[in-house]
Amino acid sequence: MAAGSTELAPRELRVLVAVADTGGFSAAAAALGIGQSAVSHSVRGSETKVGAVLFERGRAGASPTPAGERAVALARRILRLYEVLGAEARGAGRGAAEGTLRIAAFRSAALHLLPPALERLAALHPGIRPEVRVVREIGAGTAGEVLAGRADLGIATLGPGIDVRPDLLSGELVREAYALVHPAGHPDPRSLPLLDWDENCGSYTRAWWRAQDWIPRATVKAEDDAMVLTMVGRGLGMAILPELSLGEATDAVEITDLGPERPMRRVGYVTTAESASTLAVRALIRELRANKG
What we know:
Blueprint: H1 10-22, H2 25-32, H3 36-50, E1 55-58, E2 61-64, H4 66-94, E3 99-105, H5 107-112, H6 114-124, E4 128-134, H7 141-147, E5 153-158, H8 160-163, E6 169-183, E7 194-197, H9 206-211, E8 218-222, H10 225-233, E9 239-242, E10 253-257, E11 264-271, H11 273-276, H12 279-290
């Protein structure tokens, strides 16, 4: 397919996003309030302009090709700039940010890291309307939501994979230690079975885990850290959890330091260059950094 002009109009970008979000041309047409033939014509025109097939068509619907995934992600981010243009212009004149601010965060960060920052943000910029979505920090995680254009800023666990991405900006907010959590009063907590959940082990802790011959394989995998904490409190095992996950610990559990070589988890924000330049995201980053003070 020969490449032509790559300039897609906003309406063409909206069609690409709608097809990706709904999984088909007819569903996208219904969501946009236009005919299916108009959607098909728009997608074909976009593919001609960019010189790549963007969707695989089939009886089950339409799914983005690798080129389509990239195009749709950029389309969401470009459309987001159109959305915030007015708020940015008004805010520049008044010195106050406004409009919707989309945030993706993993569960413990959403519970314990975001609220004080959002409280200060609301006092300084009452025109900002935060929308917080909890995203599991596995696979693409919160950084993937930012890259895909579904979030303006993500609270993420930082590691080599995020730090080197050229299209993401990141900054560390907190460094939290892991601790041994076990039923209160248990005489030998290291003899208990291990409780764990999928989000718990990142590249920053794997070497430490491998070096601990006393840690058994997990016998129970839970949905999230809150479930793990509850199960430990019920006497069902022990767990190794980061500090943010311990904010809801009760007297039923005991927390034991793992010593000077304990693993650490870096938690920070991730955003794109275009979002980082907006007033609302800059204001939120300032308040998140103020948590460290």
